[in-house]
Automatic annotation (TrEMBL):
UniProt protein name: Acyl-CoA dehydrogenase
Record keyword Heme present: no
Residue ranges constituting the Acyl-CoA dehydrogenase/oxidase N-terminal domain according to the UniProt record: 41-156
InterPro entries per the UniProt record, alphabetical: Acyl-CoA_dh-like_C_dom, Acyl-CoA_Oxase/DH_mid-dom, Acyl-CoA_Oxase/DH_mid-dom_sf, AcylCo_DH-like_C, AcylCo_DH/oxidase_C, AcylCoA_DH/ox_N, AcylCoA_DH/ox_N_sf, AcylCoA_DH/oxidase_NM_dom_sf
Pfam families noted in UniProt: Acyl-CoA_dh_1 (PF00441), Acyl-CoA_dh_C (PF12806), Acyl-CoA_dh_M (PF02770), Acyl-CoA_dh_N (PF02771)
Cofactor: FAD
Length: 597
């Protein structure tokens, strides 16, 4: 079984050659993010992930977390790995120096998160959830809250969670019941039960800071009556040390299909002391800071599982001997040929490769926009925020759907061995499956994209992206090497707008048309965005080959993958377009009681 190797060469391609991050950092004033510093971070991060985290991945799956009277023990080696992570300063990498961070760009933190997730997704969720807590406190917390909690979260001695879901409500947070009663000292007594809390209880850090949605006594009904609170596991002392235990306990751990190494907790809040973040009844607005961080983090999960599955199935396909090539023996001195010679195995490997590398490009494009939302003029920040708002639901849903597809293809390459635990492929599939569900299912992301981001903006957010594609196509229209890509990209770009307009017109007559088209629309959008990125990658590869690069094989592989994507993956858009245009009636005409007889 092959070991995970962090794909540093491909990361550098996406960062530097595709998206020009070196100039990007310089233009935003990140003087410390010099090429040498960035390279050092990449190299050291890769070593930690390959040598420390990857060997714990299967251990975490096999052992899982154990619950005993409210206390949770993580799998063997997890706690020690986290201490190494903290001692090396990784949690503070991309956070403000005002709170002990290193002040490096958020996008560098995204690169580290991909490395961690590819090596060991379950472990990575413990520090990963802290990023959302930190961003929420940074954006909405008081100075005192930042001093008390943010500093500890940044250094990594404390971790964070977000507590939204309750037993009776998942996505529909408007009906949540957790209560927040005012205390005389200005704090609140939080009571209720939250479920599916990733990293909600563990033994890896000295304290856990829960970011909790709850209702004040006089709150209006629905989502307009939700407030946001900090509820620590242990109440901090005045000197910042851990004090008395708060009234929040872990009632149980969920028994899950995958990510066994991460504790998914049921948390009971029994008059736990909490502290309001942001204005009363504006908690959902504040929580979206956390949710958007988590959604981009989950997009990374799709890339991580695609990459991990691809690496292992590629190594296996090169080694496994079975049957002879249809075009004649390729291993004449052996009893059979390696399965990588068979076209269908190539199809599965190239699909994984295209989705892993294309997904990486998309996540890095999003990460670049996160950087831009924090620095620059108000107009520049809004431009980046609009692009990020449009791309986030696509990245979260499309990359997790294709990541899960890739994990399945990786397992399929192994044949029967893929079904056996020792190879790690079935674990990769099980771990990947949750990604299309949490932080908003694919259906929820699709409604957000089509309903809120596209139609409610009168198509403005879509047009901002399609204009980027249009400019690229216009600039490269006479580039013979890119002609196959540009022609198809222009066609998709035009159809994208037409489909959007048609759905919008239908929706004015029947709002169900939005829900009926939404998932197909999102998947179409994902394929379209990745087509642009693969065309851009082909442009860079052609330029490097024309310049006489010494890495000819690398760039030829990029061109071959781009060609595969356009010839065999992008045509999927035709099916999604046809499904969208078929309307809502074929979904809604059957009465609920007639689904089964």
């Amino acid at each position: 079984m092959s070991e995970i190797k962090i794909p540093l060469r491909d990361m550098r391609f996406a960062m530097r050659e595709l998206l020009n991050w070196d100039q990007h950092y310089a233009s935003l004033g990140y003087e410390d993010a010099s090429p040498d510093v960035v390279d050092a971070i990449l190299e050291e991060g890769a070593k930690f992930c390959e040598n420390v985290l990857a060997p714990l991945n299967q251990i975490g799956d096999q052992q899982g977390c154990t619950w005993n009277d409210g206390e949770v023990t993580t799998p063997e080696g997890f706690k020690e790995a986290y201490q190494q992570f903290v001692e090396a300063g990784w949690p503070s990498l991309a956070h403000s120096v005002d709170h002990g961070g290193q002040g490096l760009p958020p996008s560098l933190g995204t690169i580290l998160s991909e490395m961690v997730g590819t090596a060991n997704w379950s472990w990575g969720m413990y520090p990963g959830l802290s990023h959302g807590a930190m961003n929420t406190l940074e954006a909405h917390g008081t100075d005192e809250q930042k001093h008390t909690y943010l500093t500890k979260l940044v250094e990594g001695s404390w971790t964070g969670t977000m507590c939204l879901t309750e037993p009776h409500c998942g996505t529909d947070l408007g009906i949540l019941r957790t209560k927040a009663e005012p205390n005389d000292d200005g704090s609140y007594a939080i009571s209720g039960t939250k479920i599916f809390i990733s990293a909600g209880e563990h033994d890896m850090a000295e304290n856990i800071v829960h970011i909790v949605l709850a209702r004040l006594p006089d709150a209006p009904a629905g989502t307009k009556g939700i407030s946001l609170f900090i509820v620590p596991k242990f109440l901090p002392n005045s000197d910042g040390s851990v004090g008395e235990r708060n009234g929040v306990t872990c009632g149980s751990l969920e028994h899950k299909m995958g990510i066994h190494g991460n504790a998914t907790a049921v948390l009971n809040f029994d008059g736990a002391k909490g502290f309001l973040i942001g204005p009363p009844n504006k908690g959902l607005n504040c929580m979206f800071t956390f949710m958007n961080t988590a959604r981009l983090g989950t997009a990374l999960q799709g890339v991580a599982h695609a990459e991990a599955g691809f690496q292992k199935s590629l190594a296996y396909a090169k080694d496994r001997l079975q049957m002879r090539s249809l075009s004649g023996p390729k291993n004449p001195n052996g009893p059979a040929d390696p399965i990588i010679v068979h076209p269908d195995v190539r199809r599965m490997l190239l699909t994984q490769k295209a989705f892993a590398e294309g997904g990486r490009m998309l996540v890095m494009l999003c990460a670049q926009q996160v950087d831009r939302t924090q620095v620059g003029s108000e107009e520049e920040r809004k431009e980046a925020d609009d692009l990020l708002a449009f791309l986030t639901p696509i990245a979260k849903a499309f990359l997790t759907e294709t990541g899960y597809e890739s994990a399945n293809l990786g397992m399929q390459c192994f044949g029967g061995h893929g079904y056996i635990a020792e190879w790690g492929m079935e674990q990769n599939v099980r771990d990947a499956r949750i990604s299309t569900i949490y932080e908003g299912t694919t259906g929820v992301q699709a409604l957000d994209l089509l309903g809120r981001k596209v139609l409610m903006s009168q198509g403005e957010l879509l047009r901002k992206f399609t204009k980027v594609v249009h400019k690229f196509c216009k600039a490269e229209v006479d580039n013979e090497a890119l002609a196959p890509y540009v022609a198809k990209l222009q066609e998709i770009n035009q159809q994208w707008g037409e489909l959007t307009m048609n759905i919008g017109v239908k929706a004015m007559e029947n709002p169900d048309e939005v829900g009926a088209a939404s998932v197909d629309y999102l998947m179409y959008s994902g394929y379209a965005v990745q087509a642009y990125l693969w065309a851009l990658a082909a442009k860079v590869a052609n330029e490097q080959l024309a310049a006489g690069t010494a890495e000819e094989d690398f760039y030829r592989a990029k061109l071959a993958t781009a060609r595969f994507y356009f010839d065999r993956i992008l045509p999927r858009t035709a099916t999604h377009a046809s499904a969208m245009q078929s309307g809502a009636d074929n979904l809604m005409s059957l009465d609920a009681e007639h689904f089964v007889f």
